[in-house]
Amino acid sequence: MKPIHPQNETHPQTQVQTCSAAGGKGAQMTDQTLFRSLARNRLAVSAIAMMTAVAAAQPAWAAITNTVTVTGSSPGNTDDVTGNATENVDVEDAAPDLAITKVATYGAGPTTADGTTDNLAAGTVITYTYTVTNNGNIGMNNVSLSDDHGVDADGSLSTIALGSLTPDGSGEPSSDAGGDNVYDYLAPGDAVTWTATYTVTAQDISDQSADGDGDLENTVTVSAGYENSSGSAATYTNTATGIVDLEDANPSLVVAKVATVGGSPVDGTTDNVAAGTTITYTYTITNNGNVPIANVTLNDVFNGSGTFTQPNPDSATATLTDNSGGGSSDVSGDSSYDLLAPSDVLTITTSYVVTQSDVDTLQ
């Protein structure tokens, strides 16, 4: 087949062709004229077909492949010709990258914890906000969080609840069906948040002061699945640590003792109690510090001549005023109160009968 030349090229007129036209009149045709005629009338350019196959860019390990095929017919339709070409474009390897931050806030405002000067007291509610951003080049599946908060804290962290999505506005959108706290598909560039809360306990302050660091320190782990550059399922994890400073331990107990006779308090100077009179002693022990106090006991140095029963915080007559909401506890049998929580008050009573010897020697 002769090559096809553009019409504005000139070619040597070396041969004259004779064609019969209507009316039987002969006409001469040059090679160039013949070429133009064939190009217009005989070459089946409409038979050229282009077929392109393109592979999707997912999964990440695949290449984008394009194959083009051209088909044409020669002059006179005597010799069909075809040709094809293939081009492969390698897709970048999977590069998963989930960034995670953990921010603790508390109080009105709220205030963001700095981990060194927060000085949080028992009862303070901490809100943790976790933000996960897909900085990689592939979508991440089933994005979930776990926090080891219980390792360093006395109480329980609330459920880590899934929050809102912040899309970057480009590419494939993220998606989640809901119903759990796992984000189904996080697209590159998008970010999603979770939140959880924790209430500081007096035991936290006591424990962290004993540890020497005086803070709550815990780590969250984000985990997600993806398809690696070999086309296999893989898991990606990353961590972030949050630190919240607690107030220093300030242990303190206050004890008060009141003597009554016949239900009336004595004044210590004008009571004039006689032999046989029963004196009732009431002791109140208050934990006015900020940490629980363990193994609380009483010892009353008494100078009466009769039999005096030492006050026993572990006795059946001891009563607790529970201001802490269940922070105090005791198992009887050892003459001490096992754990007295901050703000709680323990009341113990005992009695003594005045003897004649007391009247004779202590007047």
Topology:
Blueprint: E1 17-20, E2 26-29, H1 31-42, E3 63-73, E4 80-90, E5 98-106, E6 111-112, E7 125-134, E8 140-147, E9 161-166, E10 183-186, E11 191-199, H2 202-211, E12 215-227, E13 233-245, E14 253-261, E15 264-265, E16 278-287, E17 293-296, E18 319-321, E19 337-340, E20 345-353, H3 356-362
Antiparallel strand pairs: 1-2, 3-4, 5-6, 5-7, 7-11, 8-10, 8-12, 9-11, 12-13, 14-15, 14-16, 16-20, 17-19, 18-20
Number of helices: 3
CATH architecture of the largest domain: Sandwich
CATH class of the largest domain: Mainly Beta
Q: For the CA atoms, what is the radius of gyration?
A: 46 Å
Structural class: mainly beta
Query: Approximately what portion of the residues adopt beta-strand conformation?
Result: 35-45%
How far the N terminus sits from the C terminus, by CA atoms, comes to 144 Å
Question: Secondary-structure element sequence?
Answer: EEHEEEEEEEEEHEEEEEEEEEH
- CATH-defined fold name of the largest domain: Immunoglobulin-like
- Name the strands of the widest sheet in spatial order: 6-5-7-11-9
Mean pLDDT: 84
Give the fraction of residues assigned to helices.
under 10%
Total number of domains: 4
The count of strands amounts to 20
How many strands, what sense, and barrel or not for the largest sheet?
5 strands, antiparallel
pLDDT under 50 segments (min length 5)?
Answer: 1-61
User: Shape from CA axes?
Assistant: rod-shaped
Structure described in brief:
The chain is mainly β. It has 3 helices and 20 strands.
